[in-house]
Write a structure and sequence with these properties.
Layout (H helix, E strand, L loop, with lengths): L1 H11 L31 E5 L37 E3 L4 E8 L2 E11 L7 E7 L7 E4 H4 L10 E2 L3 E4 L3 E4 L3 E3 L2 E8 L5 E11 L8 E9 L7 E9 L2 E11 L11 E5 L8 E2 L3 H4 L7 E3 L5 E3 L2 E2 L3 E7 L10 E7 L5 E3 L2 E7 L1 E4 L3 E4 L3 E10 L12 H5 L2
Parallel strand pairs: 6-13
Antiparallel strand pairs: 1-12, 2-12, 3-11, 4-9, 4-10, 4-12, 5-6, 5-11, 7-8, 8-9, 13-27, 14-24, 15-22, 15-23, 15-27, 16-17, 16-24, 18-19, 20-21, 21-22, 25-26
């Protein structure tokens, strides 16, 4: 009898779907995943490259005087890969994209040359009415490949593929305007191939703006302590860290803790890690045993974390070894309501099983989203400081 009553009650309910299935609102074409690729949208797909500098509809492949006009395309002419790349003169700046919104950048591909000079190529991004960049970073470091040598990155938001292809899948929404520029600090011209794919579409009012900030200290200014990010004010979430770590001591270097100071934290942080390799989702010095029976640093690249690159001057645990590490907070963003500061310790070992405060060479990129306006970034290091090894 009870089962009959329950079934009768359920059948008598109005045929409306609960909020869980309320997908009838117009889809804006953003926040893409395998579950919503089937949905149609009024979003307009656009792409900027040397074959269409403005991204305008029906304006691609029209060049008659591009970089290949007098070379490979000289017998074929317009429409046949006349403008695949551009050159940025020494100490010059090129505007890669200038977009009127609302919309969102969804993917960036580029391959700069020469690769070993990517610390001299500075990418900047500006959102809406801001005159100061929200992204200011050497190009290689922005793509988690900051040591001027190729290393494969196979992560979710950033990929680096052979031979020197940098790819970003960070979603970068804007309400009014987006501008991306690339500065060449080098004494020689550079060549850049690039494509910036974006959607013109409605953007939610609560969509925050993508930020990335580069810092470097060689050696660290404070023994044992490096600041990855400071001075952030507003509401948002921290979403990633890229770190280049050059050791100035022999032995293991990664006992230090990362600390996230949130919303007025003073002496002590709200979030405190347990070790450097722990933060980058590894363990026990990133060591595994090789066929020789000896321990070796073991590179890895996964969707959310990686030790993607190790440059070994002489051998294991030697001074001057350099490491490229990334950690993306995609499933675990660090949310802040008012302000944010991020630091990491540099701790090795000394006699008696005691920690050693080190003064290594650290360079970092912090990635986060926040509301505007933003505080002006500290100035980038000089070109010599950017490039020094």
């Amino acid at each position: 009898m009870k089962k009959i009553i329950i079934i009768t009650f359920l059948l008598s309910l109005p045929l409306t779907r609960p909020c869980l299935f309320a997908a009838d609102a117009a889809f804006n074409g953003l926040d893409l995943n395998l579950g919503n690729l089937c949905r149609t949208s009024q979003a307009q797909s656009r792409s900027i490259s040397p074959e269409n500098f403005t991204g305008e509809k029906g304006q691609g492949g029209m060049s008659t005087n591009g970089s290949a006009a007098k070379g490979a395309a000289r017998e074929l002419g317009q429409g046949w890969k006349v403008s695949p790349s551009v050159r940025i003169p020494a100490h010059g700046t090129l505007t890669l994209a200038d977009i009127t919104g609302p919309g969102a950048i969804q993917q960036i591909w580029m391959t700069p040359a020469p690769l070993d000079k990517t610390r001299c190529f500075i990418i900047r991004m500006y959102w809406d009415d801001e005159t100061d960049p929200s992204v200011e970073c050497p190009l290689g470091d922005f793509f988690a490949c900051g040591m001027g040598k190729f290393c494969q990155i196979s992560s979710l938001p950033v990929c680096v593929n052979p031979g020197s292809a940098f790819n970003s899948y960070w979603q970068m929404p804007f309400h009014k305007h987006a501008k991306i520029s690339l500065e060449n600090l080098d004494d020689k011209d550079m060549t850049i191939y690039y494509q910036i794919n974006y959607a013109l579409t409605a953007v939610p009012d609560d969509a925050a703006y993508f930020h990335a900030q580069f810092r470097r200290e060689n050696p660290m200014k404070t023994k044992g302590l490096y600041t990855i990010l400071d001075g952030v004010e507003g509401q948002g979430q921290y979403v990633g860290t890229y770190l280049v770590w050059g050791v100035h001591e022999t032995g293991w270097w990664g006992e230090g803790e990362i600390k996230f100071y949130l919303d007025g934290d003073n002496k002590f942080p709200t979030i405190c890690g347990t070790g450097t390799e722990d933060y980058f989702c590894g363990s026990y010095d990133f060591d595994t045993k090789g066929v020789d029976g000896q321990s070796h640093y073991t590179e890895f690249s996964t969707p959310y974390s990686g030790l993607a690159q190790v440059i070994r001057p002489d051998g294991h645990y030697d001074s001057q070894t350099r490491f490229g590490l990334y950690r993306w907070h995609i499933q675990d963003p660090i949310r802040f309501q008012k302000d944010l500061k991020v630091t990491i310790q540099a701790l090795g070992w000394q006699s008696g099983g005691r920690y050693l405060q080190e003064q290594d060479d650290l360079a970092s990129v912090a990635f986060w989203y926040q509301t505007l306006p933003q505080k002006k970034f500290p100035p980038l290091p000089s070109r010599d400081e950017l490039e020094q090894h």
